[in-house]
Amino acid sequence: MASLNVGNLGEYLREQRRTAQLSLRQLAEAAGVSNPYLSQIERGLRKPSAEVLQQVAKALRISAETLYVRAGILDEKEREELETRAVILADPSINERQKQVLLQIYDSFRKENAAEAAAAAAAEKAAAEKAEKAAASAAAAPDAEPTPS
Predict the structure, then answer these.
(1) CA-to-CA distance for 4 and 44, rounded, in angstroms?
(2) pTM of the prediction?
(3) Fewer CB in a 10 Å sphere around the end CB: N or C, the chain?
(4) In the 8-state DSSP scheme, what is residue 22?
(5) In this predicted model, what pLDDT tens digit does every residue of 49-95 receive, in sequence order?
(6) pLDDT above 50 for 111
(7) CA-CA distance, 120 to 114, in Å (whole number)?
(8) Distance between CA 107 and CA 101 in Å, rounded?
(9) Cα separation of 56 and 63, whole Å?
(10) Phi, psi angle pair for 83, to nearest 5°
């Protein structure tokens, strides 16, 4: 079988399994998947579903989001946002109302920064288009002699 491009997921899983000092069989049993299937994932021959990755992550006691990124299911920015939210929600030193307020503030900052980035990109594009038009009209205009003063 040809190896699938799963963003070195298999190598990462093998490394995490060894760090946890688990055999392939032990991890497969803890994750509720078959030993041959887990072996194929580690060798890059199978691309597991998000559900299987979640089960494996739980068995390894690692972040499922990290596995999702490695498998190409989630991009890095989404993972960071999810992890930030998870940390806020898991903090035992603040109450539920405070957690919700903090998440609302976090969302508003992200929206504000995204809007600023979009406005900056639009302004940069407009300036580039203006410069392009000026260069094109300068190239199309006949050479004019300077007027004497």
Answers:
(1) 6
(2) 0.52
(3) C
(4) -
(5) 999 999 999 999 888 888 888 888 888 777 778 788 888 888 899 99
(6) yes
(7) 10
(8) 10
(9) 10
(10) -65, -40
